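Title: Comparing notes on inverse folding

I've been comparing how different people in this forum approach sequence design from structure. To keep things fair, I'm posting one structure and asking everyone to reply with a full sequence. Here's the target:
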């Protein structure tokens, strides 16, 4: 399992490789869902959260808050990749997951679901 720093670095590389400008440790308040995103591109409204016990992230985002984020994504308002570190991902796994996620963001936006990148 990767550490919080290693996982976030791998995800940041993937997002920046697709042209996103990623700020780290961004406090967000999205329709009452408050947490600090590990990576966030404000202009594109795209980011990621690498959930680790090390950083206490599992306590930050409760199931109802995750569901609210999923609903915002369904509406095309924002896109946040949530990755649970307890699944034992490698840097390569995270790169693959980020690429698939960003492919889906592009597909949805091309179909009319929010700002493009």
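Reply #1:
Here's my take.
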């Amino acid at each position: 399992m990767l550490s919080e720093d290693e996982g976030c670095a791998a995800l940041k590389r993937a997002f920046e490789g697709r042209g996103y400008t990623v700020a780290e440790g961004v406090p967000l308040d999205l329709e009452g869902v408050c947490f600090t995103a590990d990576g966030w591109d404000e202009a594109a409204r795209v980011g990621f959260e690498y959930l680790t016990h090390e950083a206490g992230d599992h306590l930050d985002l409760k199931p109802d808050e995750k569901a609210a984020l999923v609903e915002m994504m369904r509406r095309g308002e924002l896109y946040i990749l949530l990755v649970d570190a307890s699944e034992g991902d490698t840097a390569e796994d995270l790169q693959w997951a980020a690429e698939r996620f960003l492919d889906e963001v592009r597909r949805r936006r091309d179909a009319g679901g929010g700002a493009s990148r």
